[in-house]
C-alpha cells in the first residue's frame, strides 16, 4: 500500500460530474480496458497541459487524494487505478475543456470543507501557499494517511 499524498486542483463542474457523483459505465461498451469490468466508478485526471507526467506516474493504489478549488479543500479520496487513456475516451466522454490521457479512478470518496490554510498547516506549508497538482514530499507527511483524512473530517464537522 502506498503512502503518498496528492494535492489535486479541480474544476468544480467536471468534478461534480465524475467524482462527486459516480459515473455509470454500463452505457459505454467502448470504455478503456482498465474500466471494462466496472459498472460504475469515480474518475478524475491530470490535465495534459499541466506537465506533471512524472507526478502522475508516482500515483499508486491507495494513495491519498486531497481535492481543492480556490481556497478550500472540498473532498478526499484514494487512488483506485491510474492509467493512460491514449484515445482520451474519458475526457471526450465526460469532461468539458479538459483534454487528458492521464486518468485515475477515485475510491473512498468523502466530501470535506477545510480552508487551504488548515491543510497547509498539516504539511508545514505557508498559510497562503497554493499548490498545483503535486505529490506532497515524504518529509512533510508526518502522520499516517487515515489520520490526515480524520483531521479533515473533524475540521469539516467542527465548522459545519
Characterise this structure.
This is EVE domain-containing protein. The protein has 160 residues and is α+β, with helices and mostly antiparallel strands. The chain has one domain: ph1033 like fold. The chain is built from 5 helices and 7 strands, in the order βαββαββαβαβα. It has a 7-stranded mixed beta sheet. It is globular and about 45 Å long. The N and C termini lie far apart (32 Å). 29% of the residues are buried. The model has no long low-confidence stretch (mean pLDDT 92).
- Outline the biggest β-sheet: 7 strands, mixed
Number of helices: 5
N-to-C SSE series? EHEEHEEHEHEH
- Report the mean per-residue pLDDT as an integer: 92
Q: What is the total number of structural domains?
A: 1
The share of residues in extended strands comes to: 25-35%
Level-1 CATH class name: Alpha Beta
**Rg computed from alpha carbons, rounded to a whole number of angstroms:** 15 Å
N- and C-termini, Cα separation: 32 Å
**What is the 3D shape?**
globular
The tally of strands reads 7
Q: What's the CATH topology label?
A: ph1033 like fold
Give the name of the CATH superfamily: ph1033 like domains
